[in-house]
């Protein structure tokens, strides 16, 4: 039985995956502009696989990458969430829990990623009881790094790494690492 999940912010609803999310999600993951900082575009079956794996993680861990919709309209705009590390392909700082996001182009520049990420940080630190949350991306992905900074994360300058799931010679192999401890989050949020 799949758990249901719901977090709400002023403008957004963060919720469990629904069958009707696959079409807009697959369309977003096939958009070259949305995926410009990723190794490749995703075919529909890979988007479906992420949804399936996310639902399994929600059942097993109580969190995952989940859809974001605009509260006022119900429009699906992408995903934001927490994702535990993959023990089969560990990064140098694992085990860890990452916060990540991917939004469709029409949702960019409106503060949605930051708003949803702040709700997930609160959930991760207060409900799950995490001591640290990380985030990472390729060095060229300045928009995501701006979100990381906006939500209070700090760059770990010694933490740059090659992503274990990407071939070393691929342009998207090198990643920068951001961190946020529960103690620092509490100082920032009061």
From TrEMBL:
Pfam families: Acetyltransf_3
PROSITE patterns assigned to the protein according to its UniProt record, in alphabetical order: GNAT
Source organism superkingdom: Bacteria
Ranges for domain N-acetyltransferase: 12-173
UniProt name for this protein: GNAT family N-acetyltransferase
Naturally occurring in which organism (per UniProt): Roseibium sediminicola
């Amino acid at each position: 039985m799949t758990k249901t999940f719901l977090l709400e912010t002023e403008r957004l609803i963060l919720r469990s995956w629904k069958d009707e999310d696959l079409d807009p999600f697959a369309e977003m993951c096939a958009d070259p502009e949305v995926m410009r900082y990723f190794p490749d575009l995703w075919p529909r079956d890979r988007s479906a696989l992420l949804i399936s794996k996310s639902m399994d993680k929600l059942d097993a861990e109580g969190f995952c990458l989940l859809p974001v919709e605009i509260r006022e309209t119900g429009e699906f705009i992408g995903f934001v969430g927490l994702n535990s590390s993959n023990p089969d392909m560990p990064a140098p700082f694992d085990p860890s829990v990452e916060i990540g996001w991917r939004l469709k182009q029409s949702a960019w520049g409106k503060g949605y990623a930051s708003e949803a990420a702040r709700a997930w940080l609160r959930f991760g630190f207060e409900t799950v009881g995490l001591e640290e949350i990380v985030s990472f991306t390729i060095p060229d992905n300045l928009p995501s790094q701006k979100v990381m900074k906006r939500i209070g994360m700090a760059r770990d300058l010694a933490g740059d790494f090659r992503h274990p799931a990407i071939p070393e010679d691929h342009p998207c192999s090198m990643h920068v690492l951001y961190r946020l401890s529960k103690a620092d989050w509490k100082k920032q949020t009061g």
